[in-house]
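The protein record quoted for completeness.
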Amino acid sequence: MVTDAFDPARVVSDLEELRALTGGPEGARRLAWTDDWVKARDLLRAKLAEIPGVTDVEMDECGNIWATLPGARPESVVVGSHVDAVPAGGWLDGVLGVMSALEVLRAAAASGTPPCTVKLVDWADEEGARFGRSLLGSSAFAGTLEIEDVKRLTDRDGITLDEALKAMGVDLDRSHLAKRRIEDVRAYLELHIEQGPVLESEGLAVGAVLGTVGVERYTVTFRGQAAHAGSTPMLHRKDTFAAAARFALLLRDVAIRHEGVSTVGNAVCTPGVVTAVPGVTEILVDQRHLDADVLRAMNDDARAASEEAAAEFGCTVQWEPLWRIPPIPFDPDLIADARAAVEEVTGTDRALPSGPLHDAAEMARLVPTVMLFASSTNGLSHCVEEDTPIEHLLLAARAFGIAAGRAIERVGAG
């Protein structure tokens, strides 16, 4: 049994070794498509090479790394996450899942020939930190990446995404060929830190994940009238920033009422000087919920709230869509396995949605998928302070090993 040979302490040891190699006082140095990222991947390759029976450690047409442990059946269970990180990021984001997947392969190999094939994947450029396109490798693999739209994305040095990938041996025009690896895949499992405060606030170490939330992003523009800040009385103003500010508070109420999340992430006023009432204010709005119907209701209520705020201050308001992704629920059977594994290890049963997107969202379009979360200290991620108590890491890895072992047994039984 995979579970019997799975050693969570080795997962933590591998994470600490990677931190020593590509970390430091300024945080993680694993930005995708850079030498430091390659160094981190080389460490992973070296550890995979130590596992008896692992074959075909290779990079696919999207830049993702795959390793295969052949089993009694060709049908496979895939485990993994991503090695890349944001600049000055944390030591656990992504790599907790990769190193836990590595331990699944070790444990499966140590237990003899597994009942089905087991594969590890390290998705390329999950973060999108260098070129601005998240889930690059997994979305290319899933066929949801608009290749021509991303080729000309540039980093701060003016290097295009296409150029950077070709320097690493990846041709985006051939990325669709990677999907052939999905043929025998029957399940995908991923472990990740929560990157939020829910588990810690409830005193919990680990939780099962129900799915990734749907996301709606808009540019919302309030238009009024620019005017002199000294000569225009308050009740005679058509102040667009006041309208936007009122809307931001109403939007908060919308999110609380629907048990979702809503964010105003930016506000730009025009003319943007201290001596003028803003005649135009443009804000960026992000709304998220796991239920598509509720997300739709949130957007309806948010639009109504914006009209209310605009009218109060004598302004108009216009919405322009930026980007959206529907809610992606995970597989009920795998969720049940994950919840049972968490309860076995911790004595608690907590399931929650994922607010951030993950590679698992792309895999869930193709095959049964589930994630598990480990708690995040103070809810922080994408920063040097990112951390999880070691005892929580050990529990999360153990639960992941149990859930992966059950998936392997089920797929192996046909």
Notes: The chain has two domains: 2-212+327-412, 214-325. Residues 214-325 form a domain with the Alpha-Beta Plaits fold (CATH 3.30.70.360). Residues 390-412 form the longest helix (23 residues).
